[in-house]
């Protein structure tokens, strides 16, 4: 019999298995649009939006949570369920940003780091076969990360923290001129869910949703009653697109074809997943003809070609997407992956060096991007530059949290490199850092 435990995230309680597999979705469109959506709340909390990362979990339950003051995790179910009312997610985000603002996460820093490593590692697992040159349908969209019950513990906040976060959330909504109706709607929805499970309030780390609804209802009416929901028609259209994309990738393809008849965007993705590349491209081209300046449509078409081994076509489309959003790190990494897979050996040095330049741009501002390090290792390997290939792989394992492997590789680089060289200096840093971790016996 599988063990069942209470797992409480964000604003409600639900039953889940003790051993859960999180599927982390890496998607430029969804992450960028959600980040822009929440930026007013982040700035209202006197925080820098560029420091907050959005991570999407492929899970139908209505969860969201923050870890380490940097990563906000949002379940796909929350986006899909309330796609027609983005104001609900705005309220949820206000609550989660309130946890960061109030410093509720500092006590859980160790577990948060573990969660971040698992999520990062899972992202690579979803892409590994593709990066190695063996495309697999839809692999670039959904990635895996296993998280055990111990990791979940850090997601729980005390009832006092939750009550404080609710109050701060109302203040953040006030500062962004939002009426708070979305937060109340979420509480009301979860109140109905609570009534089905009838949980013991003394066993919960969160107050019951009914209690929370009434505790914030009056302050919301008094403080926020003069405001609207500040949700523009474009935001509503963006949320419908995001929910459609998630459905199209996460539901069974035949169900997508049935549910989205006449929707070329959704059925194109479904046909791509069914291996019908030509039909998928044809349908997507119809959408692109109407929205010629949407970079994410070109990125999607690039993915179609990439995962069918047509790397040159993928490169063209990734470059087209980047012509609209040249700083996007996810698409840059995807472009580099296509270039590395197209290049056969060091004779293709121009393409490989282009990929290396792009990846180095990414890690210069996002030094924990493990996919970038993994692909740097592959690119240098094809150029037969062993030292750089191995030190990049050492970086990959370091940021993945596999410190022992990282240490072994870094020591190997030290033996191969001249003192003072860039590879020698980086390898020395890794050895010193991993030795410190070893002495502290942290995940060695």
User: SSE order in H/E notation?
Assistant: EEEHEEEHHHEHHHHHHHHHHHHHHHH
Mean pLDDT value? 81
Characterize the quaternary organization of these chains: single chain
Give the spatial strand order of the biggest sheet: 5-6-4-3-7
Shape: globular
Low-confidence stretches: 1-20, 120-157, 199-208
Radius of gyration, in Å, reads 23 Å
Question: How far is it from the N-terminal to the C-terminal residue, by CA?
Answer: 32 Å
- Structural class assignment: alpha+beta
Major sheet, described briefly? 5 strands, mixed
Question: How many β strands by DSSP?
Answer: 7
Helix and strand topology:
Blueprint: E1 4-9, E2 12-17, E3 20-25, H1 28-44, E4 53-57, E5 64-67, E6 71-75, H2 76-81, H3 86-102, H4 109-131, E7 142-147, H5 149-153, H6 159-175, H7 181-197, H8 209-224, H9 233-250, H10 253-259, H11 264-273, H12 277-290, H13 295-306, H14 311-324, H15 329-342, H16 349-365, H17 370-382, H18 386-400, H19 403-416, H20 422-439
Parallel strand pairs: 4-6
Antiparallel strand pairs: 1-2, 3-4, 3-7, 5-6
């Amino acid at each position: 019999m599988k063990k069942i435990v209470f797992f409480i995230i964000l604003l409600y309680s639900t039953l889940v298995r003790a051993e859960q597999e999180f599927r982390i979705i890496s998607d430029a469109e969804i992450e960028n649009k959600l980040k822009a959506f929440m930026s007013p709340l982040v700035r209202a909390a006197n925080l820098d939006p560029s420091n907050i990362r959005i991570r999407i979990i492929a899970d139908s339950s209505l969860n969201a949570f923050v870890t380490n003051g940097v990563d906000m995790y949002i379940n796909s179910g929350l986006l899909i369920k309330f796609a027609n009312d983005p104001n609900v997610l705005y309220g949820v985000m206000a609550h989660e940003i309130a946890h960061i603002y109030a410093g509720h996460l500092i006590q859980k820093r160790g577990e948060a780091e573990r969660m971040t490593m698992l999520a990062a590692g899972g992202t690579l697992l979803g892409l590994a076969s593709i990066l190695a040159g063996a495309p697999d349908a839809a692999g670039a969209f959904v990635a895996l990360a296993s998280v055990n019950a111990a990791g979940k513990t850090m997601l729980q906040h005390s009832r006092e923290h939750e009550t404080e976060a609710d109050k701060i959330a109302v203040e953040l909504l006030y500062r962004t001129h939002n009426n708070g109706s979305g937060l109340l709607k979420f509480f009301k929805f979860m109140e109905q869910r609570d009534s089905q499970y009838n949980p013991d309030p003394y066993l919960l780390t969160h107050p019951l949703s009914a209690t929370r609804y009434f505790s914030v209802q009056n302050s919301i009416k008094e403080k926020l009653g003069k405001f609207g929901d500040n949700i523009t028609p474009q935001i509503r259209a963006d949320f419908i697109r995001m929910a459609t994309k998630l459905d199209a990738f996460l539901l069974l393809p035949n169900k997508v074809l049935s549910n989205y008849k006449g929707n070329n965007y959704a059925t194109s993705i479904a046909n791509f997943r069914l291996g019908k590349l030509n039909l998928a491209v044809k349908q997507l081209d119809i959408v692109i003809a109407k929205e010629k300046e949407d970079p994410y449509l070109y990125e999607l078409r690039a993915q179609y070609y990439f995962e069918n081994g047509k790397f040159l076509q993928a490169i063209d489309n990734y470059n087209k997407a980047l012509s609209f959003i040249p700083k996007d790190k996810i698409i840059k990494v995807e472009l580099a992956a296509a270039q590395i897979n197209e290049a056969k050996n060091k004779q293709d040095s121009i393409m490989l060096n282009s990929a290396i330049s792009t990846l180095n741009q990414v890690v210069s501002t996002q030094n924990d991007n493990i996919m970038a390090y993994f692909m740097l290792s592959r690119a240098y390997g094809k150029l037969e530059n062993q030292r750089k290939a191995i030190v990049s792989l050492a970086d990959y394992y370091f940021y993945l949290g596999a410190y022992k492997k990282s240490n072994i590789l870094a020591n190997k680089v030290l033996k191969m490199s001249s003192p003072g060289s860039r590879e020698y200096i980086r390898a020395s840093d890794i050895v010193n850092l991993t030795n410190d971790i070893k002495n502290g016996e942290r995940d060695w």
